[in-house]
Give the backbone structure.
Amino acid sequence: MAPARQVLVAVIGAGGVGKCFLSQLEFLAKKRPSPKLVLSYICTSKKAVYNDDYSDVGLSSDVLSTLASSSKAPLSLPKLLDYLVKSDSKAVLIDNTSSQDVADAYPMFLARGISVVTPNKKAFSGSRQLWIDIFNVSGAYPGAGHVFHESSVGAGLPVISTLKDLVQTGDEVTKIEGVFSGTMSFLFNSFAPTSGSGGKWSEEVKKAKELGYTEPDPRDDLNGLDVARKLTILGRLAGLPIESPTSFPVQSLIPKELESVASGDEFLQKLPEFDSQMEEIKTAAEKEGKVVRFVGSIDMATKEVKVGLEKFDRSHPIAGLKGSNNMISFYTKRYGDSPLIIQGAGAGGEVTAMGVTSDLLKVLAQI
Ligand SMILES: NC(=O)c1ccc[n+]([C@@H]2O[C@H](COP(=O)([O-])OP(=O)(O)OC[C@H]3O[C@@H](n4cnc5c(N)ncnc54)[C@H](OP(=O)(O)O)[C@@H]3O)[C@@H](O)[C@H]2O)c1
């Protein structure tokens, strides 16, 4: 069969990750003349840029200003699918949003031959039925699209591809554990450092927000759900039928009294009243010569999945993490007592987009 002359790339989302992806796509398109990569559609939640003849909408710096001044509304997801399917070329959908609606549409795109690449966790960590619907179709028959989502766990770190390789080559994963949230990593590395006393909890949360490490409302990080979603994805890939990210114990660091305050700002304002709770936890760990960290773990033998605070010796690799780094350890039969450890920046536009762009390369190798 003759190689495809061109592949259409349709991008939903042009925020922190989306913008970095566009510049990496520009690099890739220049570096890799065949098949020609054509950015034929891009949208945010309010605006879109595309041409009826599927011609390239422009390079990254230009297309962002075209997008900002566009008067076109985004196509609905079924219309976007029709638009892509009607072209003579293969097409890839890049979902750079955190939208559940877009995630829910993946099976529809895959079934019509459109591959999907995304850092969006929602499709893989929500209902088990959506997971089943996606993987029943992805690559399942000639003409079906393929799905890749490396950056949905650990940003660009090769976490998902490594776990898939372990499982597909017949290794037996016994345990997965680590620090899965850049925000939590940053907070605990500065609240309970291995040397020195660290700051007050509420001050560290405020600082993390000011540095852009937290969601606009820090409770969206402190509720532990982001870590629970990542463990759901890894657990499912390792073979556990996890029902949802709320089907196992997840420790929330939001004081009960502040769960329902109206805004993130009000939450931050009242958080100092609860500093003593976190201080007690830190002191209890210090008395044992340890530090406290927010971690997640999956025990494959007992099928136990949990997310929350744990104490670690100061010499433990998890205790010594720096900044907002992630660390994910895979314990397997082959690796024995020396787990396979992946460590590095687990957040940030450029590194997350790298995972997306390298997934696009995997799609290109398949189609
Ligand atoms: N940033 C990181 O370090 C990181 C790391 C790992 C994974 N991720 C994941 O990467 C994804 C993108 O993150 P981000 O930081 O780039 O987010 P972001 O800066 O908030 O950007 C999101 C983009 O998606 C658009 N969007 C949202 N809902 C949409 C919809 N229904 N239809 C069309 N466009 C929609 C937004 O448009 P509007 O501006 O018009 O709303 C915006 O352009 C998320 O799933 C996130 O969890 C991010």
